[in-house]
Amino acid sequence: MVGLHEDGKSIVCEDPASRTRFLLPADERLRAAARGDITRLGQIEIELESQMRPREIQARIRAGESVEQVASSAGVTVQRVERFAYPVLLERSRTAELAQRAHPVREDGPDVQTLGEVVAHSFGQRGHDYSQATWDSWRGDDGKWVVVLSWKAGRSDNRAHWSFAPGAHGGTVQALDENAEVLLNPNAYRAPRTVRALDPGKDAVVQPTLDSVDAFSAGKSTSNGVPDEPVAKVIDAPIAEPDEEAEPPLPADEPEEVAEPAPRAKGKKNHPIVPSWEDVLLGVRSQRG
After folding, report:
1. In total, how many domains does the chain have?
2. CA-to-CA separations, 180 to 44, 138, 155, in angstroms, rounded
3. φ, ψ for residue 44 (rounded to 5)?
4. What is the pLDDT of residues 67-79, one digit of tens each?
5. Which of 188, 218, 251 delimits the end of a domain?
6. pLDDT category, 25, cuts 50, 70, 90?
């Protein structure tokens, strides 16, 4: 470092190998160091450390901030914040313990059970590990204490908040969010229903097939427990209509004779001619009415 620049806002630095000079922006501490003003440099350090008073550090910790957050925002070391934050952290931990012994407020008054007992019962219903949950507290802007419960379920991080009012018999707590209300209401939880696989032998509907129809026609019983009954096999074929020009087949040993077709029986009025059952089974063009 060569020294301050003429503008007074930068310092001049030089590379000892190449003798190349360059400028760096400087704050007040760096400018004091460049001038060699040790007294001013020490005074600046004291002023920076005193920007956040111990009382302010404790107030921010009591409001719920962590030591790391306060140190980062104040620009001071974590060790400096811890010296003033330790008694406040003990106060927050003690308040969280007292809140667990408080009684949740119901519609008809305070509950007989404590907050810790009700929450432990709700965790047991849901299968959560209550020993892994953590309690904390802080004081809000209105001067009232807020108690928070943090736990992990699967991959989700959950939090529930209650307002805590110290008093006789442990004090009282009131839910501040939905998670807190659900934990206080044991009837709000419903165990998930298990999915049961269907048994094809009992619940499945057996669709009829050509093989099952064959079994019926042969006088056999099928797997769906239907009694044995001979049932005719129905083939999906169009019903043959009587054809006036068709002639019945003649025996091979007899000479051909031209037989006159039998007169067709006239059905009753407005009643269609229904083919016989044999015609349906064999698919034979019937000559009968």
Report:
1. 2
2. 48, 16, 19
3. -65, -40
4. 999 888 877 788 8
5. 188
6. confident
